[in-house]
Structure formats: C-alpha cells, structure tokens
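Ticket closed. Logging final result for Glutamyl-tRNA reductase.
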Amino acid sequence: MTDTGVVAGVSVSHTTASVEDIEATQTVDVATLVSDLLDRDGVEEALAIQTCNRAEAYVAADDAADARAALGQFSPDVRESAVRHLDHEASIRHLMRVAAGLESLVLGEDQILGQLSDAGSVAREVGGLSGGVLDDAVSKALQVGKRARAETRINEGSVSLGSAAVELARRETDLAGATALVVGAGEMGTLAARALDASPVAQVVVANRTLSTAQQVATDLDSEATAVALDDVGAVVADADVLIAATGATSPVLDDETLAEAGETLCIDLGQPRDVVPDAGDERVVVRDIDDLQSVSGEARDRREAAARAVEEMIDAEFDRLLDDFKRKRADDAVSAMYEAAERTKQRELEEALAKLEAQGDLTDEQRETVAGLADALVGQLLAAPTKSLREAAAEDDWSTIHTAMQLFDPEFDGPPATAEGANTPEGSEGAPDVPQHALEHVSND
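Final structure:
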C-alpha cells in the first residue's frame, strides 16, 4: 500500500452513546474485528479500540468509498444517533484527541494512552497496521498523548474511572471506617483499589477469578486488605458498604443470587460489558454505572479546561504537520516513479550510445565515466523542475497533477490518489487532464 490511502472511522462512545449502546457494539474481540475488517474489499489497514466507555474502528483504503463501506456494519444494533462516522481528517484528529484524553469520560485520564497502544499492538500482530497512513496516524496520536501529559497539567488530580468511582462513592455514602469490595484485579480494578486505599475506608477486599492476582493487589495496599476468590464474593458482600466491579468478563458476574445477602450496599459498575445486573439485589442495593460518573468527571473537566486548551493547540499543530507529511509522501511517490522511469530510459540509451562509441574504437574507463556522468547530469537537470512542481502540487492538494505524473511514469498505477475528503479528483473536476499521446509513447517501451 502506498501512502495515498484514505482513513475512515466510526465511534460509539460515552459522548453520544449509553452503556447499553457501547455494550451492544462490542460483539467480538479486537483481534477478530481487525481481521474481519481486513477481509473487506479495498481495506489495507485496520484498527479497533474497545474500552469501558468506547468502541471504535478505523480502516485505511485507497478508495474512500471502500473505507466507508467496510465500517457500514460496525454497530448494526445501535441507534444511529449514538454512532459517529468520521472521514479522513476527522479520524486522524479524533485519534489524537482520544490519545490525549480529551475524549475521555474523565478528562485527561492516563489509562486510554495504554489502551490505544495495546490496540495498536494487537492490530500489528494480525496485519492491521503495516506502515501506511493509518499506522502513521496511530503513531502520531500516541506521540501527542505522551506530550500532552508531559507538557501540560491535563492529567493532574483524579484521572481514572477508578478514582472517579471512589469520588462518586464518597458523595453517596460515608467512607470513614467503611469496608470496600473490589471485584476484578485487572488494570481498572487495581486503580479502583488504589483510590480506595487513599480514601478513609478501613478495609479493602479484592476479589478475582485468579486468587493469586487478587492477593498481589491486596498486598500492595497500605490499608488493611484481604483477597478472596471470585466465587466467594457472595460470602463477603454482606460486610461491604461499597462495591466497585471492574472485571473483564463477557457477562455479569454479580446477580441476585450473589448480592442476596448484600444489605445496604452501593455498587458501582465499571465493567464493559456490565459486571452487575442493573436490578440485582433488593431495594437496599444501589447500582451505579459509568453513565453516573458524568457529574464527577464534569467537575474534573472544569478544573482542567486551561490545560485542555493547550492540548488542543498542540493537536492542531501536530495534525497540520502530519497532513503535510502525508502530502510530501504522496509527492514522493510520483517523484520516485518519475526518476525510476527516467533511469530506465537513461540506462537503455546510455548502453546503446556506449556500444556505438565502442564500435568506433576502444573507450577508456575515464571516457565511459564522462559519458555516464553526462547522462546523469541531463536526467538530474531535466527532472529538477518537474520535481519541484510535483511537490508544490501536493502542498496545494492539486491531485490531478500528481495523477497525471503517476500515469506517465508508473506502469502499475491505475487510479488517482484520493483526497482528504475522499474524492478521486479535485472538486468540480471531471478527472485528470488527458495525457499527451507522444508522452505515453515515450515511456511505453520502458
């Protein structure tokens, strides 16, 4: 794939969708989704991101229509208003915003940067990122995300869903001397346990399917902490005042039976899909989910608005720089094709000229070098002006000129590079200019 590809994206996230919408979108794992997208017509690269508050997919294809079509069935069971469709430039900018934490429920949270990096690694393992335009966009997004956190205060303070959940719990119940139960010992559960450790709770119980993992999380806490197996949650839930669930299970792990003895318990469900059945337990059990964290994250957002503006400016600059890089690469494709065609012609004519000179008498090595140097100089001087023109054409989005050059010099080129908006030719154009017949004849034997 050349760097003339077009990116398309689709997003179902907390900004427009409910927990149910996001859950309905995540029907297969990331690796499977990327592989499925790569099988679609025209798709050269693919990436998928699945977190507790977003499900997104991106593809790159030489034709914008192919890219859009590949994502057409990404979320068939979700209401249309919950789905955001992103064109080439919007996809690239959105990836940068996601990596920087500007699209997160908790503004500036750090976890998304690792999640995007992991998504990129999975995509590469199955051939989804292969050095093309989408690969470059992901790399730039990760770079921007790191800069945003290193150069601004975007992630200052409470910056994870785990810490936001503890803040919500503090507002709805008295944490002083309370017992907290964390169900799940993965990254999100660990963050929640650490946030509880920094709160006034007296005891933290960590439950996990693998007991040794729960024990490791509990051991790292300063508060009194114990670990239990996931199957034993029902036996310890009666002592819990607060329960935070964050497992990686594909179906709820806490239901009526598990919470039958819970009593007065605040359950905060961070799982995606859900970890807690919404109406589990009796009337004394209060269940909150990710949607209920909006108020907490909104206040964090207000505190970080100044940093967010600085990050927006950073994204603007890096976005423009990346698009310029793409344009240069597109021009370089045409320039390379032009020089390769000229080199073939030069070499053929040089060999013929040297053969004729040899027939007139032996040539010395110096004479051969002189003739070869003359041929190289002619090619360089003749192509200097068109090289400059092609790079200027790319900078000005004049893709019809690039198209004509590629037709002239690249025998395998069969279509124009798509523009950022996905069109094959500039707006208002009926197509690339006709290629002069004599020019085609000149390169037809190469």
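The radius of gyration is 29 Å. No further action required.
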